[in-house]
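INFO  loader      accepted 1 record
INFO  loader      residues=305
INFO  predictor   begin
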Amino acid sequence: MRPRLIVVSAAFVLALITVLAAPRLLRAQTPQAPQGQVQAGAQPGAQPAQGQPGEQPGQGQRGFGRGARGGRGNQPQGPSKPTPRWPDGHPRLGAPSEDKGTWGSCCGSLSNAQTPFQDWAKALLDYRRNNEFEPHTRCKPSGGARQFVTPYGTEFVELLDQQKIEIFDIGGPHTFRTIYIDGKPHPANLVPSYYGDSRGHWEGDTLVVDTIGFNEGFWMDRAGSPHTEKLHFTEKFTRTDYNTMKYEVTVDDPGAYTQPWSNTFNMRWSAGQELFEYVCQDNNFAPVLLIGNEEKVDRSSVIIP
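INFO  predictor   done
INFO  writer      dumping tokens
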């Protein structure tokens, strides 16, 4: 049986070539900045701005957090709905019963040029910027504001009958932080931990959280701002509308800074999202963040405390 010959017209071949070549032609026509060129208004050698107020989820993150949005749900469009509230009038920090969603990331870097570093703390921050040997990329919990820059955002679960609020960082090592709102003070003789001991109370529409008892085994923000076990963290969470959470933080650590200092950021709501299982270290493509510039790393310590 003779094989059939398929006759292809010249017009068809030309059309096929045009379709395949179109993306390359478009890229070739798009102006590209010369290598090493600094964007307008930026200082030569400056790092990209991180964690600025109003920043959208996924922006201002480097390395492990790069491109990791605060959830893959629908971003809010148009005017926001009012702040959802509990029957007692307090704002809901999590999703109402008829909805679901998570908060996108904020606060890449708490510190800036005006931060009152002690000399050793500033030297350590400079080292960390060039050697991103971050504990979070080795499955360690992230205390302080670093919890709100984890991949896929965070979920707030309010357990009012138990008088506490749980905060789950979705892209983390299966740990969560508890904020007690029962009015009790911090326990005496706290054992230092990654999340510390958090005690919250309401001031109008703002949840004020006081946290002490931190260890030194984590970065308190994405940039690596140093801290000691003397760290006293004060946070204010204000859901200004359905889609926006104002986050204010004051750092008081006489072991690393010459005086207390503050910063403010916004988190954005990612509708339709909820907590899912995240396997830390599975297919991790961040070798620089795992071992810095070292040739090896000691993995004998327990991953999850």
